[in-house]
Design brief:
The chain is α/β, with parallel strands linked by helices and 142 residues long. The chain has a single domain, classed as STAS domain (Transcription Regulator spoIIAA, 2-Layer Sandwich). It is 30% helix and 36% strand. The chain has a 6-stranded mixed β-sheet, sandwiched between helices. The longest helix has 17 residues. The protein is globular, with a radius of gyration of 16 Å.
Amino acid sequence: MSEITQTGSTKKAGGARRGPSSAFDSDEASPVINVQVSSPGKGSRVLRVTGEIDMLTAPMLDSMLEGQLQSVPDVLVLDLHEVDFMSSAGLAFLVTAREQADAAGTALRLVATGDPVLRPLTVTGLATIFEIHPDLEAALAN
């Protein structure tokens, strides 16, 4: 793979501690999502997402996706195997991503193996509209 061309992350503020003092645990924010973008071969881009896809992080993902589609890759892979939570906003992001990729003439492929991604896609019936692969190598094949 070539080196990472872009990274992005969003952080969520630490929560309040329950107890007599109600003091905050920490002023530091905890990572919610990390996205790494790479170009593993001619005509392909990979967005590797780690963390949570929800109403806070979906807009950042959408912005990164739009940026990658401007170069009109033949294949765009969303590697979601390290996503540990996906809300309805995440599902909406995936549907929009598919529409944007189709409009650009780019094949959109997902890498997903865990319940946090596969379960919502299956329960909603959206799994049938995506090309889902068990690993990055399979998604990049063809």
